[in-house]
Every structure is written in C-alpha cells, then in structure tokens.
Structure prediction request, 369 residues.
Amino acid sequence: MRVTFPRLGTMHIFCKAIAETAGIPYLVPPMTSRKTLALGVKNSNECICLPFKVILGNFIEALQHGADTIVMVGSGPPCRLGLYDLVHQVILKDLGLHYRWLTIPSRLTWAALKKNHEETKPLRKELTPRNYLTFPYALYIGWRKMLATEHLEKLAMQVRAREVVRGSTQRNLQRALRMLDEAKGGKTIGEAVQEGGRIITETEQDPARRPLRVAIVGELYTVMDPEINGGVEQRLGELGVTVTRSSWFSTHINRSLGVGREHKRERESFYQAAEEYLGYDVGAECNSSVGETIIRARQGYDGVVHLMPFTCMPETTAAAVLKQVSKDHRIPVLTLTLDEQDVESRIQTLLEAFVDMLLWRRDKGLAAA
Prediction:
C-alpha cells in the first residue's frame, strides 16, 4: 500500500503527517505544475471545472510515481465535487492505471459508512496492529498541523500588506511551513509554530502604510489553492491589501462533523444575510459567497474578490447575484472566472486595476467607513 491524495494548498502537510505518524506508506503528489494541468485537461471533458482537472492531474502523476491507493474527499449535489470520485475512477481505469480508492464522506451517514466499509476491505488486509493503534494519535497530529498551517497563513496575510521588500513575507511563510512539515510530535509542532510565527512577524514592515481590506469568497478549491487561483491571495497582499477569507480546511471539516460553534454561527450569519437575494440553499458555497459579501460590506471592507471555476454552477449563480449586491451595498466585487487558459499576466492586471480603483474610492471618501 502507498497512499496518495490531492495536492490542494497546504493539504499535503497534514495528510502526510497522518500517514507518517500512523506508519502508512504514502506519496505526496508532485507540486501542481503546467504538466499537471495538461494531464488533467487532456483526459477530461472540456466543460468540467478546473479543480476537477487539476486533481485528476495530481492523481495521474502520483500513480505514475508509484502510489497505489487514492484517498479523496466526497461532497453532495449540486456541486460536481460530489461526482469527482466516480468520474475520476472511470478516467483512471480507462487510462490503464491500477489503484485502490477510498472516499472520505462529507457527511457521516449510514450509506457513506457502508460505502467506506466496502472500499476499505482490501486495504484493511494490509494494515498492521500498529497502524490501527496509532491512527487516533495520527489524526490528532494531522489536526494540529492543519490548525498550525492555517495560523501561519493567516499571520502572513496580515504581514504581507505592509512588507517593505515584495515577496519577503511569502519566502518567510514557506520557510515556516517547511519547519512545520518537518516537525514530529505535539511538542515540536508547538515549537515550529512559535518559531515560524516569529520568522513571519519579523519580516520588515512599513507601519505607516494603510492597507486596504479585501475579502476573498467563492468556490472552496479556487479560494484555498494558490496553484489553481494563480496566487490571488499573495498578489493582493503584495499590492498592499490585507486579505480575509472564511474558507479553510478546518472550517469545512468542522462543518461536516457538525462541530465548532464559532464557525457554525459565522456560516449561519452568511446564510441569513443572503436570504434577501436567495430564498433557498443553492448548494456548495453560493449562499455563503453572497452572504459573506454583504457581511463584509457592513464591516467596512473596501472590496471583495469572488473566485470561481469556469462552468461552476453554484458560483455562476452567486456571480449574477453579486452584481446586485455590489450595487445595493456599495462594495466593489471583482469576479475572477478561472480555467486552464488563464495566464498570470491577466490575473495580475485585473487585480492591479481593482486595487487602483479601491484606492481611488478611498481617496474620494467613497469607501465604507
């Protein structure tokens, strides 16, 4: 057995930690590249969304490098993420690639647990007593690393907008994440977080700078993975913007498990705010994208960047509604529709123009107080 998983943002850090701690052989897919995307595009229907293609490319490369077991998250309709596990398997089989498959359900229902039981039958034969005994601790270590990566990323989002040397925060963040990735055990994770935080906060900053405040909303994969969105979060920060987003791995896991009161209340507030425009749950992040934009307008944010894959059904609905929300709540919204044709120069140009417009609004006193 050699387990692999999608390379989504910093997801590989805590997935690797779980497998490593439990003594389960694993393979981290190569870093997402143009080759990864090309493999996904070549073997996908052209109308399917960008995350599907990137993840398919991740799996093809991982299997070619020696992985034999794929672990993938599940979801429900109307988002096509709920079909990823089924369609990916068909494509990989048609390509003649051999693998075992395990879907992590988005909801712990009896049907999902039964499906998991069947999928894990051949895998359980290869697990040792040590794997079983250490797995709960491995989940704990993985969770600790997940929260730690998110803490460091959030810290970088605050520092990056005031950095003196462009790119220095990102370099320090990557250094901190490497330290965290190498940490073994709870104590060393704590030490890595503390040292990583120090490295990031010691980035040379200009305290006199007045950063803009922009929220990023949209489809969770395009929001959380810089390889998919072209590094929007970093680009905004380096343009002097403090970025906020509510999509994190921990928040989505807590939501699936039905725990985490703070995150639950936040999401409920987004849905309640969106009720003026959406009378029902459209699915995926649509209602949340609309509601969060309204909440951020009330909080005095300067603008919102809405990220969505081309052809994403829920976020296409959100994009249409956000045009009216932008007018009603007087908050600029930039919708970036992402696909495999995107080039960095297009994204950079759009973000620079958006930030220039936000600065002009602030100078003219048009921004929210």
Remarks:
- The mean pLDDT is 89.
- The chain has three domains: 3-127, 146-160+162-207, 211-369.
- The first strand starts at residue 3 and ends at 4.
